[in-house]
Amino acid sequence: MAAKLSSGSGGSKFDLGQNSDMNVTPFVDVMLVLLIIFMVSIPAATVSIKLDLPPAIPPPPGTVVKEPILINIQQNGGLFIGEQVTRLENLPGDLSGVLARDEPGIPPTEQRVYIRADRGVRYGDFMAVMNTLQGNGFYQVALINEDI
What we know:
Blueprint: H1 25-45, E1 70-73, E2 79-81, E3 84-86, H2 91-102, E4 113-117, H3 123-135, E5 141-144
Parallel strand pairs: 1-4, 4-5
Antiparallel strand pairs: 1-2, 2-3
């Protein structure tokens, strides 16, 4: 506790007068307790999510990187596998043929396929392509929002 020892007002020597200074000790005590509570509770609040990410190992120099298989959806309804024109009904068969020709040892449904759509493509048209691919076993589908 704080006290004024000299008031300078000419009163008796035992007259302490009023102390108008704020006592900050309880305030500091409360802040330290809150700091300790937050320091203890924050590590428990962070939940770690286990992800099985592949290692980021660049290919060795001189390795030829193959171009990915792109499915392009145009705003006017055009559908392309790379540069080859196709239709939604023929997409699984045409895609299987292109993937089998590109990587003969791997089944087509286990290869990654990239989809790129124009900005103005309707959501329903995009989802029709996604549903057709997933309905025929193509589950490794990646979406592209920029040029590769």
